[in-house]
Each structure stands twice: as C-alpha cells, then as structure tokens.
Amino acid sequence: MNRTINDFGLVCGILPQGAKNAITDVPGVQVGHCTLRDGDINTGVTAILPHSGNLFRRKVVAASHVINGFGKSTGLVQIDELGTIETPILLTNTLSVGTCATALIREAISQNPDIGRTTSTVNPVVGECNDGPLNDIQALIVSEHHARVALQAAHDGPVEQGSVGAGTGMTCFGFKGGIGSSSRRISLDGSEHHLGVLVLTNFGNAGDLVLPDGRRPSPKTVENLAKAQEKGSIIIVLATDVPLEHRQLTRVAKRAGAGLARLGSFWGHGSGDIAIAFTTGNTIDHDSKADVAEMRVLNEDRIDLLFRAAAEATQEAVLNSMLSADEFVGRGGATRVSLVQVLRRSELKP
C-alpha cells in the first residue's frame, strides 16, 4: 500500500502533482520491481524504462550529476560524454551492480545482435545503495534472473513504493526508507508536460529530517547527532517529456539536490548522492545517416519551472519512500521504525 504526503496533510512546494504522482506520469516511462525477502536476505532490483521500445536503437537524451561521489554506479561517464541513455536504468544494492550490468548487456544484445560486432558496444546504467545493515549483502543473492524479472514487470501504472525492489533493505534518516516517487505538471505553450522523480533512499542521519511544515524529531532523538557520520546514499532518477538537450538536463539534475537540502540533508563525506535525468522529448536514432540531427530545446527563460519541479518532486519522493514503508526487521534482527508510526504518535516537534 502506497502512503504519500497527501495522507498526512503535508505539501511540498506549489506546483500541481501529476495524476499518478509518480515518474510514470511521464508518457512512456515504466517501472518494475523484483523484491527478495527471506530471513537475512532483504534486497532486490528496480527497473526504470524511459520507453518501451528498443532503447539502443532509439536512445533518450540524458545527463547525470554527482552531488557527492561515494558510490559505485556504472554508466555515468558515457552519459555525460555522449548525452544519451541506451538501456533501461536498474537500481540495486552495492555489490550487485556488476550482475545487473551484465543482465542489461545480455538484454541489449538479444534485441540487437550487432552490438560489439558490426556496431558499437552498449553502455548499461546501474545505480546502487548499500543495504548491508538490513540485508546480507555478502550473500550476493541478486542474479541476472532477478534483473530480468524487474525488467519484465515494468509497467506505466502507479509505482509501488516503500520496501520494494531495490528499496527493500534501505534506511532513510534513521527510518525505513526505500523506493519513492512523485511528479509535477507543467504547462508550456498551452500543452501539459510532466517531470517525474523516482528515488532509492538510503541516506540521512537520524534526527536531521525536517518535514515541509517545519517539524523534526524531538531533542532526545538528536542527542548524539553532532557525532554522527553520514554514510548513506540516494539515487535520484528524473524523467520529463519536456524537450531538453544534455546541458539543460544537467542543470535540472543539479536541482534535485535542493530537494534533499529541504529535508535536512548535507550530503556527508560517506554519502553517494547521484542524480540521473532523461527526457523522452528528444531521442537519438542510433542508425541515422544524417550529418545534422534536429533537436527541440526549451526556451531557457522557462527553465525555472523545471528547476522548481525537480526540487519539489525530489523532496516529496523521499518522504513518500519513508511513508510507504512499514516497520521492518532485517538482518540479525536489525529494526527500522516507520516514519508513519512517529507521525501518528505526534513525536515530531516544531
């Protein structure tokens, strides 16, 4: 069951939410999960598909931004060099990045037998967070099969949130974290567009969280806050159907950090905070023979709308990841309470 900020009277910003209030409000975008939970095993894979076609043949324009680089993601270098994404995006735990990358490569080759033979190789995109505290990460339980299950489960309906897929074993601000999503509607030249965000949350010190109405954990929760070290991570995937080019997407991706800051995050030394952004409004034909490619771009004087949408939807997606997650018992009995329990007991103070 998804619980969102709407169920608790909280509001992030001023822009209207999309109908599903999820990254799948962007037409064509699909999300799927494979959840693994059995005793000390609490992990999984989440897949984000920019569109349902052949991504290698019809790439989406993309960019990434490393807010703090304590992470082991793959594919970011080529995204920023060529400005495109040519596979689905997979999210998983830190030690399963290679497995998921191999699954993406096999999937791409099955659709495009010329990869690495008569055409270029393929750039798999995988993001990760460390779920070790709640999951036996050394078991290396995630397989290529699990990655394929997540890919095959992808759909364009409401996004399941909380302790699912890659978010199964994640912690956020000391509470149970996981997968969260949100979206914003934007009007440009009389047409409706969307910017959607999906997050994998595993960051934030207990006691640092600030809600949109200014409430935060009570003083007894934060007694040792000054001694705490931020060692978590977050992967933020931003999607839009607004036509942007690579440089503009980079600028939008940077504004996801504003959403984290609103929540009380300071992107600590040990935190891996990475944003990946793409637009379905511009695609690149892998087989084009034209010397010059046409591309539509947003009037830069209107880009503040997307900056605001990125900040608001990121802030809300993080909260939704916690609100959708129930109390959780993981590896060795490690327990994470749900933010919902605290809100219902009114233990957050102004």
Protein model, in words:
This protein is of the alpha+beta class and 350 residues long. β5 (89-93), α2 (97-111) and β6 (125-129) form a beta-alpha-beta unit. It is globular. The protein has helices at residues 76-82, 97-111, 144-152, 246-254, 256-262, 304-323, 339-344, and strands at 30-38, 41-49, 58-69, 84-85, 89-93, 125-129, 171-172, 175-176, 179-188, 191-202, 216-217, 233-240, 272-285, 328-329, 335-336, 348-349. The chain has a six-stranded mixed sheet, sandwiched between helices. A four-stranded mixed sheet has the order 1-2-5-6. A two-stranded antiparallel ribbon has the order 7-8. Keywords: Aminopeptidase, Hydrolase, Protease. It comes from Microvirga guangxiensis. GO terms for molecular function: aminopeptidase activity. Belongs to the peptidase S58 family.
Strand content: 25-35%
Assign a percent range to the helix content: 10-25%
Low-confidence stretches: 221-226
Amino-to-carboxy terminus distance = 28 Å
The overall strand count is 16
Number of domains: 1
Tally of DSSP helical segments: 7
Gyration radius over CA: 19 Å
Largest sheet: 6 strands, mixed
**Which CATH architecture would you pick?**
4-Layer Sandwich
- Assigned CATH superfamily: L-amino peptidase D-ALA esterase/amidase
Organism: Microvirga guangxiensis
Pfam families: Peptidase_S58
Family: Belongs to the peptidase S58 family.
Keywords: Aminopeptidase, Hydrolase, Protease
